[in-house]
What does this fold into?
Amino acid sequence: VGLRLCHYWMFFLKKCSSDVSDPDVYNQAGANHKQKLTMTTTGAPTALSIDRIETLSETHFNDARQISNEFLSTTNKRACLICPCGLCPDTKEEFEGFYRRSPGRCSTHGLAVRSDGVVVGVVNLRQGGQDTKFFETLMHRPGPQEVYVEYMAVTKDARGMGAGTKMLEWAEAVARERDATTLTLSVVNGNPAKRLYERKGFKDVAKVSAPEIFCLFGMPHGQCGGTTMEKELV
It folds into this structure.
């Protein structure tokens, strides 16, 4: 554990311009796949409803990056209770560079789009075998038949609109589309979002090391440690 904590701090200090994923998603395959993985609400949308979840495209690179960075800066995450994670935003060059080098990851990065066309949420998924950023391996390494929810984030003005529920449903649809047998995520202790995960069928399967969570995020919800949760898809 001590060695891993050293690695975390070396990375944090060396690259203070990267996003830190909270454990709490334009596909090169073409428009048919994108349409297949797009969910739309039933009935006439209201003025502020979540209209659909769509895969990441270059058109929305900046939206996705800004929402992720906002999420880091407004949720009281502090590495070892010292360094606010919001001080280390993902830069435009880093974000766009990664997804242009690894376009396959766009198909597992979802955007919650409001009925007026505004992007108000993101969900980032990762399956074993996909290209990975260094920091993504610090929390969890999914297997080839596992899709892991790296993080979900919703803008403040869109909370309570059901974006989290729709993004989780999209994540499950993507996991099934990719022949995964399990959908997993990690949640920090005390995070009220855990109730949503439980309602959607996730169950606790393992504890996440308290020192690791503390080093990466501090105690954003007043408690140390976290839990890995899993939903079987077979």
User: Anything to note?
Assistant: Residues 1-46 have pLDDT under 50 and may be disordered. Residues 46 and 115 are 7 Å apart (CA to CA). The chain has seven helices and ten strands.
